[in-house]
Write the structure tokens for this entry.
Amino acid sequence: MLYSEDSLLTGFGSPLGSIDSIRSAGKGFIIHLRAASAAPSYIAPFETTIAFLANYAEANKWPALQDISTAHLEEYLAWFSQRPLGFGEVASISHRTPSSGYLGTQYRRLNRFFSWLEERGHIPLNPMVLVAPPKVAEKVVPLLTNDEFVRILEVTDPMVADTKKGRFLKARNHAVFWMFIDSPARRGEIQGLSTHDINISDSTFKVRGKGNRERIMPLGKAAMKALWNYAAERQKVKPNTDDLWVGCRGEQLKSGGNWLRLMITATGELAKVEGLHAHRFRHTFAINWLRAGEPERILKLLAGWKKIPETYYRTLGLDDVKRGHDNLGIGETIKALMKANNSGNPSQRRGFL
């Protein structure tokens, strides 16, 4: 796994030692998650979150782990909310700060970490208990249109490549986007696919989602054709891994890296689709499913939800709201009733209805 430059587990092979700092406690927590068979995609974000906190605590000479207070953590979260996004040079030139949703995610991870420390007796009390959770702004995620889908697929079409390397990369990226378009899979789920997860005979693929739960998703003919074309290109580079997505020399693309996120962003710029990111595909699939009147129970199975997020119902879009309002037709019904009542007795007509 490719960890960030703020990785906790540098020198992971060394003995854990005593848990007296955030960094040593973080190592213990990561070991706990691994021993519990948590998915790597679940563990890696925790590691980054705790690494940020450990770096800040060491730079600001915080006290020993047992003496870290609520005030310390509030100070850190206030700093983090103004910190530029990214690592290293990216952070130094970034003008973007974390969203309220991202801050909420950091809060929950830290609360989970300190709760574990309290459960294990490493600290007397969880100092996160008194930290107020960030207020998360519930924003409407813009849907992707069919025209935008077409532009994305056109710029990744391997038929327009003029080199072998270009044809391979476009075939790979084309297959990736077809899987995003034709399923509600998460970015991490698609990024972590193995060749063994694809079932050509019944046009399905298997993902491991949150909680390491497996799901089977179907794919249409167009998506399967794109995967088949990529498989042919993949074979030519003689990959040395079972990972589905490989580099142009057959090398492994680290599952914890940013290659997929960066590829999606770059493709969005080429296709002139503003603000393209993986979740917009998942959101669009779910909204289109609900609009088509397909069973919500099946959508929950496909997307890996115990409950469909309320925001999906609230962001179905103005067209859906207007259509529902027109179908309900309360005003027209009342107007028709008043017209019928007044038609028999013209002297009782009032108003402008």
User: Anything to note?
Assistant: Confidence is low (pLDDT under 50) at residues 1-7, 9-15, 88-94.
